[in-house]
Amino acid sequence: MSNFLVSNPNPNPNNSFEVGQPPNDSVSSLSFSPKANFLVATSWDSQVRCWEITRGGTSLASMPRASILHDQPVLCSTWKDDGTTVFSGGCDKQVKMWPLISGGQPVTVAMHDAPIKEIAWVPEMNLLVTGSWDKTLKYWDTRQSNPVHTQQLPDRCYALTVRHPLMVVGTADRNLVVFNLQNPQTEFKRIPSPLKHQTRCVAAFPDQQGFLVGSIEGRVGVHHLDDAQQGKNFTFKCHREGNEIYAVNSLNFHPVHHTFATAGSDGAFNFWDKDSKQRLKAMLRCSQPIACSTFNNDGSIYAYSVCYDWSKGAENHNPATAKTHIFLHLPQESEVKGKPRMGTNSRK
Length: 348
Prior knowledge:
Layout (H helix, E strand, L loop, with lengths): L1 H6 L9 E2 L8 E6 L5 E6 L3 E10 L2 E11 L4 E6 L6 E5 L3 E5 L8 E5 L4 E7 L4 E6 L3 E5 L8 E4 L4 E7 L2 E6 L3 E6 L6 E6 L6 E6 L5 E6 L3 E6 L9 E4 L2 E2 L2 E2 L2 E6 L6 E5 L4 E5 L4 E5 L7 E6 L6 E5 L18 E5 L3 H4 L12
Antiparallel strand pairs: 1-30, 2-3, 3-4, 4-5, 6-7, 7-8, 8-9, 10-11, 11-12, 12-13, 14-15, 15-16, 16-17, 18-19, 19-20, 20-21, 22-23, 24-25, 25-26, 26-27, 28-29, 29-30
């Protein structure tokens, strides 16, 4: 690990735009508003921060807008679909609802018995879903103090993705629990991960026909739900350098082209096309891991955080070098537009 840091001291080898006034500790989640270029970051420093991102031609600027404090480190965030409100959850076992755009004060709208690792707003249900290390999933109507429904999970929630009606939850025992949100009180399917090691992240296909899963062992699985499509399932290696294997920390589908990005503990982010099974672009490795990432609503900005992700333990954390950065990359069409599949009409 030390060789890696010495041999590549640059936190920003891809010349991305840097967001000003970043958190004082590692970033745990990044979320763009679905309506405008407001970026929210949650951090281990117990804060939730928001910046307004403005674009002028090929340059970007960031302006800090507001922040709120949790009692303990914050692990996850999401926006309401109308772009008015941010939800954040974490180690204080609660979710705060922050009416950011109106300048209102945050209120607690959800509680668990252990840290809240994942959160999603489901506009089709007008409900908030929270996944916790207490081995439950809870659905919340934010106007009520008690959950609408509590779903037992086989183990702690590590990852969650929703594309209504599909929801996939990755748990600590490598189980992937699939729900059809039209019948949310029953598991639709439980699938052992196609990857041999701990699940780090999941992402539902934009067409709801399957999902991606990433593991700590530098591998991604592409899984289709339909039994007739099982022949299309595959796994591939990524975020590896020689014998060094790094965690896949983040999976994000491009909102327009439906290609996807992976980001890892090796400090790299890559763009992929699952349909043609190709890597579209490999970016240069940053000096620290990429802990999390996200696209904005039209896919014109890819945000990622370069910071220590604790994948090598506390003994490899050097506070002197472990500065936290949030960068913004402007994807070129060639990086994120899918390639035509072999044997198909190239104009398709």
